[in-house]
């Protein structure tokens, strides 16, 4: 059996100009990065501003195992299937982060015969967007310390600097550091730390900006810390936003690539779903809606994370909403949530499927009841799924009166996802009653508690003294009209990664609250959540290699 990278390296790619032609992009509207990658000019949106939007499908999932449930693979398979049904479709995905690529998860470009290509380029450096985010982020870090070093005319309290540094790598040693060691010439000595690039506020800003003016304004609105007198200090006070925006000029443009079946894919920005908002850029979605008949958009992790943030934040900013939501589930995932250990996940276990289905049911109810959008369950089929398990799962799904399809996107590409595509198209005819769960002008705690109770099923929220202090400060400085971007574990609907299935009788614990005012987020940190992951004992990096003739191996 061929590995994902071997399948990708055998693919026959079309020149990216031809992919653009399929969806009506003119050659002069593309900025080429070699033969198979291009950035899309924002002039396309202006040209098509009067064209009606396409239908939109949001792809989310049940609460995932550590290995993911195949959301990206299903998303790509689905867009390929739409083309087989003579529907122009674009899949809009996030860019992979080097941290997870070399960490536990490996590559993030789909799998089998449902991949985006060139796979190695996308997984590693792509068009340099992540490097631009790193550079803009760390420029602001450098300007903060330089300002303090050269007299500190803004009277910044170095104990109250909120802005960390960023690097696109899983490196636990950088979570908490001391900078400025070695004497006065090396800048102020203070506590600092790194976040992984997908958790950077600059990444969120890049993903939510509609144009260069919006980008620059948001960068200027970044809260970097407080003065000794308690007043807020913003990036604009350091006059940093102009240079940061200049670094990000090309990074704001979405990237066009293709699937293995030569259908278009737009891949842009990469905020994580657990510690950021978890979807591709607003611009990539707007382009997909203007250039296709059906836009397929993936959201990170389960519907309690990426989908919740998409539906509460991104939809309000973009003035759009999905016409259907696909929830990706797997027998493996259900058995995991039914209490089965890793080594036994490939063995038949009907009772565990029944027990673990409670998790799937929670996600169905979240989409259908909380947000008023018709869900379709996509069962990602694995070779070791048994007929008895499939029969029982069909029974469980039919009892929920929900559309579903068994998918073989990995093994068969678009052909293996046609039933799902047909079910999605049928769902377009069903009435939807989308509405966000909260209004942005509600009190902060009310917004947080709505998410905790309605989406997570919590009994309530407990706040630490530090969290309460920060929430009060946010209100005092006039930033309470912010979206809530919860940071919590992806391994459970609750804030405790050990509570599998559908937890009940728990409260969400918020230990810390951060303000990301450029993105217009308030970020409550639930439980033990970190913005800088670490590498596992046996990272995926151990499998990656380069041959003597320059061929990359081991990226799954």
In short:
By secondary structure, this protein is an alpha/beta fold.
Notes on the protein architecture:
- The structure is a single chain.
- By secondary structure, the chain is α/β, with parallel strands linked by helices.
- The protein has three domains: 4-128 and 251-427, 3-Layer(aba) Sandwich (Rossmann fold), CATH 3.40.50.300; 129-248, Domain 2, N(10)-formyltetrahydrofolate synthetase (2-Layer Sandwich); 444-526, Roll (Formyltetrahydrofolate synthetase, domain 3), CATH 3.10.410.
- 35% of the residues lie in helices and 19% in strands.
- It contains 19 helices and 25 strands.
- The strands form six sheets. Strands 1, 2, 3, 4, 5, 6, 14, 15, 16, 17, 18 and 19 form a twelve-stranded mixed beta sheet that branches. Strands 20-22-23-21 form a four-stranded mixed beta sheet, sandwiched between helices. Strands 7-12-13 form a three-stranded antiparallel beta sheet, with no helix packed on it.
- Helix 4 crosses helix 17, helix 7 runs antiparallel to helix 10 and helix 13 (331-337) packs across helix 14.
- The chain is globular, with a radius of gyration of 23 Å.
- It catalyses: (6S)-5,6,7,8-tetrahydrofolate + formate + ATP = (6R)-10-formyltetrahydrofolate + ADP + phosphate.
- ATP binds at residues 65-72.
- Pathway: One-carbon metabolism; tetrahydrofolate interconversion.
- It holds the Pfam family FTHFS.
């Amino acid at each position: 059996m061929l590995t994902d990278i071997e399948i990708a390296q055998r693919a026959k790619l079309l020149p990216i100009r031809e992919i653009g032609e399929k969806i009506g992009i003119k050659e002069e509207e593309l900025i080429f990065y070699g033969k198979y990658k291009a950035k899309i000019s924002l002039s396309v949106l202006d040209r098509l501003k009067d064209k009606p939007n396409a239908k939109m499908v949001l792809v989310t999932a049940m609460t995932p195992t550590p290995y993911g449930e195949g959301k990206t693979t299903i998303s790509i398979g689905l867009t390929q299937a739409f083309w087989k049904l003579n529907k122009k479709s674009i899949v809009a995905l996030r860019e992979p982060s080097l941290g997870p690529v070399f960490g536990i998860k490996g590559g993030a470009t789909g799998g089998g015969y449902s991949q985006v290509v060139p796979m190695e380029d996308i997984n590693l450096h792509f068009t340099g967007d992540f490097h631009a985010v790193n550079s803009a982020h760390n420029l602001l870090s450098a300007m903060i310390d330089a300002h303090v070093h050269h007299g500190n005319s803004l009277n910044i309290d170095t104990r109250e600097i909120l802005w960390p540094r960023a690097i696109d790598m899983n490196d636990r040693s950088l979570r908490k550091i001391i900078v400025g060691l070695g004497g006065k010439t090396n800048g102020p000595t203070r506590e600092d730390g790194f976040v992984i690039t997908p958790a950077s506020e600059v990444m969120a800003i890049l993903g939510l900006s509609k144009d260069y003016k919006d980008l620059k304004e948001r960068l200027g609105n970044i809260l970097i810390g407080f003065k000794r007198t308690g007043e807020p200090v913003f990036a604009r006070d350091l006059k940093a936003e102009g240079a940061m925006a200049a670094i990000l000029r090309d990074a704001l443009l979405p990237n066009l690539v293709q699937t293995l079946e030569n259908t278009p894919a737009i891949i842009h920005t990469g905020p994580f779903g657990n510690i950021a908002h978890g979807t591709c850029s607003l611009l990539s979605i707007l382009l997909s809606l203007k250039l296709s008949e059906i836009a397929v958009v993936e959201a990170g992790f389960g519907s309690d994370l990426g989908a919740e943030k998409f539906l509460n934040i991104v939809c309000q900013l973009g003035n759009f909403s999905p016409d259907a939501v696909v929830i990706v589930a797997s027998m493996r995932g259900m058995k995991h949530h039914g209490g089965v250990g890793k080594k036994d996940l490939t063995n038949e276990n009907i009772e565990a499927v029944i027990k673990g289905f409670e998790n799937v049911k929670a996600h169905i109810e979240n989409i259908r009841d909380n947000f008023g959008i018709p869900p379709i369950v996509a069962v990602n089929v694995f070779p070791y799924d048994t007929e008895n398990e499939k029969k029982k799962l069909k029974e469980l799904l039919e009892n929920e009166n929900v559309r579903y399809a068994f998918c073989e996107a990995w093994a068969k590409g678009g052909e293996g996802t046609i039933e799902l595509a047909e079910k999605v198209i049928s769902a377009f005819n069903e009435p939807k009653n989308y509405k966000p769960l909260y209004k942005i002008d509600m009190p902060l705690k009310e917004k947080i508690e709505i998410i905790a109770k309605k989406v997570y099923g919590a009994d309530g929220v407990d706040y630490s003294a530090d969290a309460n202090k920060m929430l009060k400060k946010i209100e005092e400085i006039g930033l309470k009209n912010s979206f809530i971007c919860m940071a919590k574990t992806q391994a459970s609907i609750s804030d405790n990664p050990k509570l599998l299935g559908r937890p009940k009788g728990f409260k969400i614990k918020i230990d810390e609250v951060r303000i990301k005012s450029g993105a217009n987020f308030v970020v409550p940190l639930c439980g033990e959540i970190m913005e800088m992951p670490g590498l596992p004992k046996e990272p995926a990096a151990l499998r990656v290699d380069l041959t003597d003739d320059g061929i990359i191996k081991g990226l799954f």
